[in-house]
Specification:
- The chain contains 7 helices and 9 strands; from the N terminus they run αβααβααββββαββαβ.
- The chain has a 7-stranded mixed beta sheet with strand order 1-2-3-4-5-7-9. Strands 6-8 form a two-stranded parallel sheet.
- β4 and β5 form a beta hairpin.
Length: 165
């Protein structure tokens, strides 16, 4: 093997190692920190951005795509860098979450204890919609209809249903 080939092999190995390390890194922050913006080095060194306990007003502005909110702009910047975004919310806020814009965004949600939250924007919830879900909170609209089979599937799968008021 030539010196150049060895250098290329070593360089490729280093890049793969750093990408594997990046994949495991999570950058956690609060809403106030997100509003102040994030240094570009965070985007390079982390794969996931974890926003902890934002308020309901921010979640509404995020759902509306309000770019006058600095924190919303920062999340859009994180997505443009390819970061995954996870938001953990206090359990008491779950039923008040806006359902109209959030399901379309590339983010994951959980309650403050780490239990996943799924948002359903459909008007009809069927067995097919809940059969593949792991234990989670499932947020549906107050006028969403649910088939009897879907309702029977909730408890055995440890799915907590939250109907918006």
């Amino acid at each position: 093997m030539t010196v150049a080939a060895e250098q290329v092999e070593r360089l490729v190995s280093l890049v793969i190692t750093r990408l594997a390390e990046r994949e495991q890194r999570v950058y956690s922050l609060r809403l106030q920190q997100l509003r102040q913006g994030i240094e570009p080095v965070v985007f390079l060194r982390h794969a996931t951005l974890h926003l902890q306990l934002p308020d309901l007003g921010f979640m509404q502005r995020l759902a509306d795509g309000d770019n006058s909110e600095p924190a919303v702009c920062t999340l859009h910047q994180a997505w443009s860098w390819g970061l995954r975004v996870h938001i953990s919310l206090h359990q008491q806020l779950l039923a008040a979450l806006p359902r109209h814009g959030l399901p379309m965004l590339p983010l994951s949600l959980s309650d403050h204890l780490g239990h996943p939250v799924r948002l359903s924007a459909s008007k009809l919830l069927s067995y097919r919609d809940v059969a593949t879900l792991d234990p989670c909170w499932l947020l549906i609209g107050r006028e969403t209809l649910m088939t009897p089979l879907a309702r029977d599937c909730l408890a055995p799968r440890h799915i907590q249903l939250l109907r918006q008021e």
